[in-house]
Every structure is written in C-alpha cells, then in structure tokens.
Amino acid sequence: xxxxxxxxxxxxxxxxxxxxxxxxxxxxxxxxxxxxxxxxxxxxxxxxxxxxxxxxxxxxxxxxxxxxxxxxxxxxxxxxxxxxxxxxxxxxxxxxxxxxxxx
Length: 103
Prior knowledge:
Layout: H1 21-28, E1 49-50, E2 57-58, E3 64-65, E4 72-73, E5 78-79, E6 84-85, H2 86-102
Helix pairs in contact: 1-2
C-alpha cells in the first residue's frame, strides 16, 4: 500500500514538464550556433552580417547573440527583458503560460 506522503509531488506530471524552466527551455530550443560563432556574412555588403530572424543586413556591432539558441539578432528582433531573441522569448512565454495553467 502506498501512502499519499510517499508519492513525489511531480509524479502526476508528464516527463516533459519535470525540471526547472531553464532545463525545459534548453531541451525544447534547438541550438543554431555555438557561443561565439560569427553570424552569416551578407554577400551584397562588404562588412555586413545578416540577422538570423529578419534576414536584414547589419554591422557586426549591431547584432547580439542569443544565449539560448545562438542566433544573431538585430535590435528589432531582440527582447531586452530576458536577453534573448524574439524566437526564444516566444518559447519562454509559452513555457511560462504552460506552467501557470498546470498550477
């Protein structure tokens, strides 16, 4: 016989929902580039690089690399709140909403 106290608190949740938010995000977000790997060069501009999300040309100093997926993003494709690209910010939002709906 199993008592209610002997069951773990997350035994009813599926395996996908176990773990903290960061580990779940890292499992769900594929890595596009390794940290420090440069962005793609723009063939039309001599010193231009492409934003991975909007595919527009920018100077190297105008792009930032996402800490979760490794994409290079321009200012308009960037979310300052979590220091991630807009694509990963959408995943953070989905995981946050999912976490709130299961509680």
